[in-house]
Amino acid sequence: MEKYCSNCGAELNEGADVCLACGKILKKEESNLPKEDVEVLKEKKPLTPLFNLLSGISFVLVLVFYITAIFESWISSSSYFWIGDDQYIAVFFWFVFLGLAITGYVISNKEFKSHKITRGEKGVATFMFISSLIFIYVVLVQLWWQW
User: Could you tell me if 133 and 105 are in contact, meaning their C-beta atoms sit under 8 angstroms apart?
Assistant: First the structure.
């Protein structure tokens, strides 16, 4: 009877404890369990990479709309301070970015302590969190210069 790896589909040698193609450790007791129980036994994937990706996308959108708004204000009014659609869109995406960055940072701390993610993934989440706080400073300095 030929057996195949449940992870990658590679053919397994008779009596193998490890898949030679992907390295998955094969458990004997898993093969006797119903499929529903095997799904419960699988470990959940970490959420930090997802939050890092979404934070990165919203960070780029904040920068694009913020820089666009500054350039539009320079061209139209020769003023550094702007009031316009791009400002509101930038602030909206900043709130999205801030929420994702804080959530990602909190989750990354928990997942790092339980050894589900690497130091690099935690570093990206920390970078996103700090970047969201720096944007507050940039906007406050901009408002201060205006007054």
Answer: no
Domain residue ranges in the chain: 3-41, 48-146
* Angstrom distance (rounded) from CA 57 to CA 62: 9
Cβ within 8 Å of residue 97, ≥6 positions away: 55, 58, 59, 61, 62, 128, 132, 135
Task: Tell me the per-residue pLDDT of 15-42, one tens digit each, with 9 for 90 and over.
Answer: 777 877 777 777 654 444 445 544 544 5
Spatial CB neighbours of 129, under 8 Å, sequence gap ≥ 6: 101, 102, 104, 105
**pTM exceeds 0.70:** no
Rounded Cα–Cα distance for residues 40 and 134 (Å): 41
Q: Are 73 and 87 in contact (CB under 8 A)?
A: no
DSSP state of 19: -
Beta bridge partners of 4: 11
